[in-house]
Amino acid sequence: MSRGKSEDGADAALWQKIISQTSPLDKRHKSRQIARAAKPSATKKRTAGHSEKPIRATASRLNQAAKPNAKPAPALQPEVTIEHKARRRLSRGHLEIEARLDLHGMTAAQAKAILTQFIYHSVGRGLTWVLVITGKGVAGQGILRRELPLWCAQPPLSQNIVSFGPAAPSHGGDGAFYMRLRKQRG
To answer: In whole angstroms, how far apart are CA 108 and each of 62, 102, 136, 145, 177?
Structure first.
């Protein structure tokens, strides 16, 4: 359905009227609005002997005041360390994935034990690149998907894994991880 020129002209005129009546907020104006909101209302009676000074509030102060009983931040996920160039080469098939492990349907304890065994066996065979499939879980909140990076960042697995990171969509995407294994010495 196309609009006529009169509708477009009316819209443009309305838009110009709105723009002419507005101006951008600057930081000082915004802080004054916050300070006004933080002042006590004029209807409250002032206590004798106490003078009320305007409160100078900033967004960071308001955020700190709003969270006095905030829970500590959850433990951070380990940093994904796989190189972008290597990930791209793996996804395109230029680097060979030498072994795969599928952890679907396992409990966290079973998956950790099997993963540990798989990593030790792969390192023993001299493999470099492996793919571990965890699945995404319900609504992307799978336990294995969340726990695997933690396991890989802690000993004994961290001693055998050089880097790891999410796989490309062709290999399972967020439900799988590439891992680069450490070469065994002598």
So the answer is: 41, 13, 14, 10, 16
Q: How far is CA 9 from the centre of its chain?
A: 45
Whether the upstream peptide bond of residue 72 has omega within 30° of 0, thus cis, is no
- Which residues are within 8 A (CB) of 129 and not within 5 positions of it... i.e. 6 or more apart? 90, 95, 96, 97, 98, 178, 179, 180, 181
Residue 147 and residue 49 in contact, taking contact as beta carbons nearer than 8 Å: no
Q: How far does the chain reach from its first CA to its final CA, in angstroms? A: 75
Q: pLDDT digit string (tens) for 73-116? A: 444 444 557 788 888 898 888 889 999 999 988 999 999 999 99
Distance CA(166)–CA(77), nearest Å, equals 13
Amino acid present at 14? L
Domains of the chain in sequence order:
96-181 (3.30.1370.110)
Please give the structure tokens belonging to residue 79. Answer: 């940093």
**In this model, does residue 18 exceed pLDDT 50?**
yes
Amino acid at 73: A
CA distances from 132 to 110, 122, 153, 167 (A): 14, 12, 15, 9
pTM (two decimals)? 0.56
Each residue's pLDDT tens digit, 23-47:
666 655 555 555 555 555 554 445 4
Distance between alpha carbon 12 and the CA centroid of its chain, in Å? 41
